[in-house]
Request: fold
Amino acid sequence: MTVNDNFIVQRYFNVKDYNPKAKNSVELLELLDGFVVNMKQHLKMKSVSYMSDNQYEIMENPEVLNTSITDGTEIFNLYIKVENMTICQRSFDAKVYPPKVRYTVDLRPRLKNILSELTDIFSGRKFNYFYPQFIQK
Reply:
């Protein structure tokens, strides 16, 4: 995971009985989308806590929350690669969160579960490839 080109966390892991078909599965799509939803919720709650803890400083100096300190956009990126090839990616806007929040993301407590879920999917044999929400009538 990165914010722009700056790594937040990077992990290499092996998957016993890797199934390359998993990369196109609904299961992987749902896992990644769920991760993004959970990450956004976590960052939102961290922002609320930060703003509550620093409410007097923010009232005296609203520039503390200025998310335009850096030039350009800031994007959180989640990449899953096999060797050097990106097989899936998710991105979302980082600038909606206060600088103190977006620059102090720590995924280490959740990494074991994330890697376990990814390993389960990538070593799976039965997948769903039917994406009903994308089918147009």
